[in-house]
Each structure stands twice: as structure tokens, then as C-alpha cells.
Amino acid sequence: MFSENAFTGLEAAIVLIAFVVVAAVFSYVVLGAGFFTTQSAQEAVHTSVDQASSSLELSGDVYGIGDIHNTNNHLDYVNATVALTAGGTPVDVSQMIISYSDNNGGHIANMSYGGIGTDGGTCPKNDGSNTRYWCIGEKINNESAVAMLENNAQMILMIGLPESATPNTQFTINFQPAVGAYFPVSRTIPGGLTPVQELY
What is the overall mean pLDDT for the chain? Predict the structure, then answer.
């Protein structure tokens, strides 16, 4: 038979302290993991909101500009005015990706950026090849020299179209900001082209 008479109060205190220390360390680890998980969840929510909602929107109508070479067989470019959504943060428009597609087989995955200003009437620039450009034709309520779109400001974008943009063609232009979801703009080219026409 073994006797436990030698199990003194001091030993009991040592065991109790050991259990308390282990429990404290364990609870600290659990709380730390909980705080980290909470912060990660908050970051994921904020990132998801930023990515799921676009920071740009159309402001006004989209206008089609007839072929500047007077052949009148296709649209040369469109004018679209963009602004920030309510509560949106400033956007560097020059970093935006613009793509184009239509039901005639026309497709441009990443249109080239042509800069700011009409540049003597060459905006949107067309170098004579199949390359199409888009540019910032005019900035409204924005005096800065850069392409930063800020609150209460607007920018008129001039987007060059391929020769497949003929009458009765349905096309879609996708605007993809550097941060945020893209937003598509779909319009139909009317059966008869004029130098300037509103697109629906």
C-alpha cells in the first residue's frame, strides 16, 4: 500500500500554480488567434467591398462621333463622361483598362491609352493601323495636370472604335479601374449615321 501522507500543501500549491500558468498561456494563445482572425475577416470584408463595387459611373449620355473621314460607314469614336460613385475614392483614370466588343466580331481586349487633351484633334489617336486609342478629352471641375479623377469632378473619355462599329451594331465597352469592379456600357449604333448622335 502506498501512502499519500507526504503530499503536502506546498506541493499542492506548486501543482495549482503550474495549472494556472498553463491555462493563462493557453488562453493568451487562443485570444491572440481570435484577434488575428477578426482582423483578417475585417480586411477580407473591406477588400471584397472595394473589389465588388465599381468606383466609377457614367454621368450623362454616351455620344457617337461619325467617321471623320466622311465615309459615314462606321462610328469613329464615342464620348462617355465618367465620375466617381458616391463616397468613392480618387481614381487614376490613366491606369484604367478599356476593352471593346461588338456583335460584328470586333474585339479589343486592352485599348491603348492616348493621354490627356485633344492634342490638336487627334484624340482619340489612330496611327493608321488596327490599333485604337482612348484618351481624356476634357476634365470638368478638375484643374490638376494629372489624370486623377476626384470627387465632384468629371472626365469626358474619347474612345476610338474599330471599323466593325457599323450601323445597327450592338457594342459593349468595359471600363476596368485599377481598383474596383469593371462596369460595362452597352449601346446600339443607329441605322443612319450623323456626325454626332446620342447612343441608346
Answer: 79
